[in-house]
Write a structure and sequence with these properties.
about 550 residues; about 5% strand; mainly alpha; 24 helices; six-stranded parallel β-sheet
């Protein structure tokens, strides 16, 4: 017991020191946890303990909470608004990449079909942890390529669930045909997900409401942990992975008003347990093996990088420009953290050779170590070689503007807002981050500029301090919040009018000192009643 406590304290201390150092040079903390596991094994000679079932079980719950937080981000409403990126680009990217890698591994490298399938599925996935962290921190997530990359990552995260379920069935029903296994997997998953959504949704909503009304944070947190672990155990008892239950219950909570509170409260638990999982991965690394095969590992990583980039570029290019397609492809060229889970489960289930699994894990680790160094340089690199036809924006013409209205976004609502302002004779400009929308506004004879209104330099250029008001008509909820936050941070007295489409969006924006939040549905209802009243008055006059 005393030795166990010493190992835990040492792992915690080493991970803190290593991650502080890696943070300074821009490497993901995932690598820090993996290095911690390797250091612990060699420092205390724990190679036998690295294969402990109890340790793997604790590590697996890190993935459970990661899948839960991913479920929180994938509400049904968000999936619907990004269905083209998620189900269009996502399905093609995962499907084609898996097929290409399967063909290469099975037919060219002559590895058995089951192992080839595991490798192909794992290599089709990219790193949500690394890529989304960068896209969010740099605000590139709101750019067109950031949205496309996010959509594909969401589908990859969704695809992890059937992949893990498939591994479970291949492990337990290895004597059956692939077709039978797939049918059992699909039908059983439908039953489990259906039960969780139909029965679980009512239980979850009631429990969260009850615990939140108590105004005790520990009771609310306890309820969330009970819900996540309970759903995970239910899925496990039904023959699936713990992750399936956690993912589905995350999607259920995403539809409730407690979404943001749950996400904030659960983050520390998720990060700690996820760190434990990656420490267990690091404990399985054979340093001598890595140094002895480093040339082959680098070469194979380069091959994977090039293949994934080419495939993703072709997929995204079908519906986008070359520049956006290449940026998206390069950002998703690495192999992701869920590959560790796939390799670990496949190896423990006898679907992958242990030495081959070690080799593959080292390729993934190398991939994730390299990614933070080049991901921030993707845009400058692509822009140097591919020049898109963009609107030449000269903000110098706005230098003397005062008391002007800024219309942010020239979509359907933006057009009508601009028309109304024009009819009023108001002094206004249009700002939009979409090249296509700006060209459209210019064709309509409106003063329009290409720019991201969440950037301080753009806010300075459009004279936000001297503007009479800024009307935000965008549909993207996250981008809307980012712009409001940036505008109010830049100019506290700014008159900000925002269009919202849901109560959740309204609640989130209500946290900011926005001048006016306009709910489209409420306004339509008001106009309908006004028209009804005017019709009654007209009929009274005629009588």
């Amino acid at each position: 017991m005393e030795n166990t406590l010493i190992y835990i304290i040492m792992a915690l201390g080493i991970s803190i020191v290593v991650n502080i150092f890696l943070k300074k040079i821009g490497i993901s903390q995932i690598i820090g946890y993996i290095l911690t596991g390797t250091i612990i094994v060699y420092a205390f000679d724990l190679r036998d303990a690295s294969h402990s079932h109890e340790l793997e079980l604790v590590g697996e719950f890190g993935i459970v909470f990661l899948m839960f937080t991913i479920g929180l981000e994938i509400s049904l409403a968000k999936m619907n608004s990004m269905r083209k990126e998620i189900f269009g680009n996502g399905i093609l990217q995962v499907g084609i990449t898996s097929a290409v890698f399967y063909a290469i591994v099975h037919y060219l490298l002559e590895i058995d079909s089951t192992s080839s399938l595991m490798i192909a599925l794992a290599f089709s996935l990219s790193s949500t942890a690394v890529v989304l962290s960068y896209l969010k921190s740099s605000k590139e997530i709101h750019r067109p390529y950031g949205q496309k990359a996010t959509g594909i990552l969401i589908f990859q995260d969704i695809a992890v669930i059937p992949i893990l379920i498939l591994i479970g069935f291949l492990t337990t029903e290895g004597d059956q045909s692939v077709g039978t296994i797939l049918w059992h997997t699909f039908s059983s998953a439908v039953i489990v997900v259906g039960l969780l959504f139909i029965v679980g949704k009512r239980v979850v909503s009631w429990l969260l409401h009850f615990s939140a009304s108590s105004e005790l944070d520990e009771l609310f947190m306890g309820s969330v942990l009970f819900i996540v672990i309970g759903a995970s155990l239910f899925a496990s008892l039904m023959g699936f992975t713990y992750s399936l239950g956690a993912f589905v219950v995350g999607m259920i909570i995403a539809e409730t008003k407690y979404h943001h509170k749950v996400e904030a409260d659960i983050a520390p638990f998720k990060d700690i347990l996820l760190g434990t999982f990656f420490i267990t991965v690091g404990m399985k690394i054979d340093v001598d093996f890595f140094l002895g095969h480093i040339g082959t590992i680098v070469l194979l990583f380069a091959a994977v990088f090039v293949l994934k980039t080419i495939i993703t570029f072709i997929v995204v290019k079908l519906s986008s420009s070359s520049s956006k397609a290449l940026k998206t492809a390069l950002s998703l060229s690495q192999v992701g953290e869920f590959s560790f889970v796939i390799f670990a489960l496949a190896t423990s289930g006898g679907l992958l050779d242990e030495q081959l699994s070690m080799f593959l894990v080292l390729i993934v680790i190398f991939s994730m170590m390299i990614t933070p160094f080049f991901i921030s340089r993707i845009s400058p690199f692509v822009n140097r070689f591919i020049r898109e036809k963009v609107v030449q924006t000269d903000f110098s013409t706005i230098a003397g503007k005062e008391n002007h209205v800024i219309v942010c976004g020239y979509g359907v609502v933006g057009k009508f807002v601009a028309q109304e302002l024009e009819d009023m004779g108001a002094n206004y400009i249009v700002i939009d981050n979409s090249n296509k929308n700006v060209i459209k506004a210019l064709k309509h004879g409106r003063e329009a500029y290409l720019g991201d209104a969440s950037k301080t330099s753009i806010l300075d250029a459009i004279n936000i301090d001297k503007a009479a008001a800024i009307i935000i008509t965008l549909d993207n909820a996250e981008k809307k919040y980012t712009i409001c936050e940036a505008v109010l941070a830049h100019s506290k007295d700014a008159n900000v009018i925002v269009k919202v489409t849901s109560l959740q969006e309204q609640a989130k924006l209500a946290m900011l000192p926005i001048t006016s939040i306009v709910d489209g549905k409420v306004e339509v209802a008001r106009v309908l009643v006004e028209r009804m009243v005017s019709c009654q008055l007209k009929s009274l006059k005629q009588s």
